[in-house]
Amino acid sequence: MSQTPSNMLPLGTIAIDFSLKDTISDEIVTLQNARGLQATVIMFICNHCPFVKHVNSELVKIAKEYASKGVNLIAISSNDVENYPQDAPDKMKQNALDEGYIFPYLYDQTQEIAEAYQAACTPDFYVFDTDLKLTYRGQLDDSRPGNNIPVTGTDLRYALNCILENKENTKEQRPSIGCNIKWKK
Fold it and tell me: How far apart are CA 39 and CA 42, in angstroms?
């Protein structure tokens, strides 16, 4: 199991627009029609990564907890499905249904969106404010498979609460650690 860290896109970066197919609804989703009123979390995940499997239930909890506060989560998988068929769109849909995702699970077939966001691993988290400016990037929390630290979503929750409370996030932002994105090249 590889342990690849986030690239840590510069804070203040404006969210890059996209138009990707949602594997759950089979509809095209854009950043503009999926963004939250207060905050938007864009996360790069996939089906097979043990780091993602480790946090899936917490992602669903956070999505449910923050939806009424104007926060939307958007999941994107950019993995090479030719070499990693378990991450193919039909399997993404089944995984989303099995996990109870209430957020879109988009397929980045060309990998252009992952490249644009400088995504490096799964999971990789990006939090944007109401103006779609990046205010947080990095880990969900300190929990990793096998380290016996409970999954709480502490870092992501803190970042979202800072936006909702209109205060600056002054905590150290630590990279996520996970499986590397499976690039085609």
Answer: 10
Q: What is the pTM of this model?
A: 0.96
DSSP 3-state percent helix, strand, coil across the chain (nearest 5): 30, 25, 50
- pLDDT for 115-160, tens place per residue? 999 999 999 999 999 999 999 999 999 999 999 999 999 999 999 9
Q: Which two tokens stand for residue 12?
A: 């203040």
117, β-bridge pairs:
none
Cα 153 to Cα 35, 67, 142, 172, 174: the distances in Å are 20, 15, 8, 15, 13
Q: How far apart are alpha carbons 147 and 166 in whole angstroms?
A: 33
